[in-house]
Design a protein that fits this description.
The chain is α+β, with helices and mostly antiparallel strands. Helix content is about 40%, strand content about 35%.
């Protein structure tokens, strides 16, 4: 049965890598629900966070294929139970609605939203949470003249991970080479074992 998986990919920051990763999904006709890329805890290493709905067997194969990309250092996949995750949402509503209807203001407080911009014609609120939480506030604000809504991609941390920095330290201690060479060599050894 299909379920939601979060794929975390550690990479070198190289031009064209995002396109190569996206092609892996499109060839298998897998829709990416959410994609975020950012620096990681290790200088020079970037982190991709990709959310998909798929069978675990398919996700496992996709992650193996992603790891074969030259600039990819390591990739993981996790269920929602194995990660802590959040998304950021922005809501633009008419300022006069907020001023006239105290009910809306109470609702915003109840959902932990805060005003980030207040203008004469509109107010922008921000909240963070899981998709269900941001969707609920979206549905609540709809009847009050919601002008615009946008939600960020997922950011996630693996619960039982010691972080990629610890992996790097292990690699560096095992072989006296540069950090990136050590990771790539270890990845190649792992792929050989998988075959």
């Amino acid at each position: 049965m299909k379920q939601e998986f979060t794929i975390t990919i550690y990479t070198e920051n190289q031009v064209g890598l995002l396109n190569r990763i996206a092609i892996i999904f499109s060839r298998r006709k897998i829709n990416i629900e959410s994609l975020n890329t950012s620096p990681s805890e290790v200088e020079g290493i970037h982190r991709f966070t990709i959310v998909i709905d798929e069978l675990e067997e398919v996700v496992r194969k996709v992650v193996r294929q992603i790891e074969k990309q030259v600039d990819v250092l390591k990739a993981y996949f996790n269920t929602n139970d194995e990660i802590i995750w959040q998304e950021l949402a922005l809501y633009k509503v008419p300022t006069d609605t907020i001023a006239e209807k105290a009910k809306v203001e109470r609702l915003l407080r109840a959902y932990g939203a805060r005003a980030v911009v207040i203008r004469k014609d509109y107010t922008i609120f921000e909240t963070t949470g899981q998709r269900e939480e941001t969707d609920t506030l979206l549905n609540v604000l709809g009847p009050f003249g919601l002008i615009e809504f946008v939600r960020s991609a997922r950011v996630a941390i693996i619960k039982d991970s010691k972080g990629f920095y610890e992996k790097l330290k292990e690699f560096e201690q095992s072989k006296p080479t540069t950090r990136i060479d050590s990771i790539n060599r270890s990845r190649i050894e792992e792929e050989t074992i998988d075959l």
